[in-house]
Amino acid sequence: MKYTNLISAQELQFFQKNGYLVKREFVDLSVVEAIQNKVLEHLKNRVKPFELEQEVHYPGSPKTKEEQGGDTIRRLLLAYSRDVVFAQWQMSHKATRVLKALFDSETLYLVQSHHNCIMTKQPRYSSETHWHKDTRYWDFENQQLINTWLPLGDETLENGCLQVIPGSHLWDAPKDRLDERLFLRKDLASNQEWLEKSIDVELNRGDLLFFHAAIFHAAGRNKTQQSKNALVSTYHSEKNQEIVSPFPDLKPVKVLD
Question: 5 falls in which pLDDT band (50, 70, 90)?
Answer without folding.
Answer: confident
